[in-house]
Write a structure and sequence with these properties.
By secondary structure, the protein is α+β, with helices and mostly antiparallel strands. It is built from 12 helices and 15 strands. Strands 1, 2, 3, 4, 5, 6, 7 and 8 form an 8-stranded antiparallel sheet that branches. A 5-stranded mixed sheet has the order 10-12-13-15-14, with helices on one face. Helix 2 (about 45-60) runs antiparallel to helix 6 (about 185-250).
């Protein structure tokens, strides 16, 4: 074989290795994208943490890992995963060893605290040879479980707002074939950093959405309390009048016929029944969300009308239900009520702001292919064209300054998605139409 032929073979081999490397890199990028999408769909922090631990372990060939989450000025132990010990999640025995670490300068000799304070990745090839950190906790864990900790990678979990969300510790990188413990590499650092950042953003978004949801529910609760206070005035007045009438007749020695007494009693009972119905609807709305249940759509909307009855009457708003009254869907009932309450409240404010005469809100129920559709249409003048494309974003409102939070419609879209649905809007002649589509399961 000539020198030229040898060089050609070496060149071909080099090109093939480059191809293989590029394929691996493309595969890694694809996996990272998939993980990012998956993290965005997780419904709770615990699921995000488990997901990130499993994926980082796979990417770096780590034997295990631990996650601490920041609560106040503490790193609180949340999850652990270790293949050798066959441990996953927050095992109670391990909680005796790991509890929480205070994030303060005096604890900088603890590697996780140092990582939290500096927001820098820390790589250690052998924890037993390390002179810079206190690994007494790790050694106690080893002594208790018979495990042998060696290489370690400690990664800060930082959100896109540069906020520290937590700290991730990886332990013992293993050779794929021999299972020998190896030091973590710079590639491992980059991958772990990327995944930890994705998890941090997902956790931060989850927390913000939860806070916004709570704010939205508190705002709705305030409106409900106000509505019920108004709604109870009339029946309480009727009860008071009947009771006063009976008392006056007693005081003046006047006799009441059996028919008069019966009528007064029936009227009082009717008013008390109305008060109890309203109270039960209010209590139901405030209860913690239950699992999905099948309910007739018309019944759900009618319960919302009852909650807002006085508000609708006092603003001369006609709220009606049209379409197929027999249709049902499976949803988290209180959450969907929250959507409809928000839509009615927004229409009411638009009616007042635009001085609409004869205001009407129509709830039209239908089924279109695999979806149950509720179209909520008003005649409040529509949504301004410069706002309508952003109406479902957080902090966007069409109301006057100080009268709108901009979180109601944002949370309504989140609730729709949680219930396997979508919420859309379009302007129609004279007003706006919101369409809630729920997958018919």
């Amino acid at each position: 074989m000539t020198d030229l032929e040898k060089e050609n073979l070496e060149l071909k081999a080099y090109i093939e290795s480059l191809k293989e490397s590029n394929i691996q890199k493309m595969s890694t990028i694809s996996k990272l994208n998939s993980i990012g999408v998956s993290l965005a769909t997780q419904k709770d922090v615990s699921s995000i943490l488990k997901n990130i631990l499993l994926n980082i372990k796979e990417f770096t060939n780590a034997d295990g890992g631990t996650i601490y989450i920041v609560y106040g000025d503490k790193l609180t132990f949340k999850h652990v995963l270790n293949d050798t010990l066959d441990v996953m999640e927050s095992d109670e025995e391990l909680a005796d060893v790991w509890n929480y670490l205070e994030i303060k300068d005096e604890n900088r000799n603890m590697v996780s605290v140092k990582c939290a304070l500096t927001k820098q990745i820390i790589k250690i090839d052998d924890v037993y040879d390390s002179k810079h950190y206190d690994f007494s906790g790790t050694m106690a864990f080893d002594a208790k479980t018979g495990y042998k900790s060696k290489s370690m990678l400690v990664v800060p979990m930082i959100s896109d707002e540069n906020t520290l969300v937590g700290v991730l510790q990886l332990i013992n990188k293993l050779d794929v074939h021999t299972k020998e413990i190896l030091p973590f590499t710079s590639d491992d650092e980059n991958l772990a950093h990327s995944l930890a950042s994705q998890a941090s953003v997902a956790i931060n978004k989850f927390r913000q959405d939860k806070l916004i949801m709570q704010q939205s529910k508190m705002a709705a609760m305030g409106e409900m309390i106000d509505a019920i206070a108004h709604q109870w005035k009339q029946p309480l007045n009727v009860i008071n009048i009947d009771a006063s009438d009976i008392q006056m007749n007693i005081d003046f020695g006047l006799e009441m016929t059996q028919e008069e007494l019966k009528n007064a009693a029936v009227e009082i009972q009717d008013q008390v029944s109305h008060l109890l119905n309203t109270l039960e609807e209010f209590r139901s709305f405030l209860r913690p969300d239950k699992p999905k249940e099948k309910i007739r759509i018309e019944k759900l909307i009618e319960s919302v009308f009852l909650l807002l009855k006085d508000d609708l009457i006092s603003n001369n708003i006609t709220a009606k239900i049209t379409g197929d009254s027999s249709l049902e869907f499976e949803v988290i009932v209180n959450e969907v009520k929250h959507i409809f309450i928000n839509l009615i409240s927004n229409s009411r404010d638009a009616f007042i702001q635009n001085n609409i005469q004869d205001p009407v809100i129509d709830f039209h129920i239908s089924q279109k292919k695999e979806f149950i559709c509720i179209e909520v249409t008003d005649n409040a003048g529509g949504i301004p064209s410069h706002v309508i494309d952003d109406i479902f974003k957080a902090n966007v409102t069409t109301k006057e300054e100080g009268k709108g939070t901009g979180i109601g419609l944002y949370m309504s879209t989140q609730i729709a998605q949680k219930n396997n649905g979508t919420l859309t809007v379009e302007n129609v002649p004279g007003g706006a139409k919101f369409t809630l589509k729920i997958l018919n399961t």
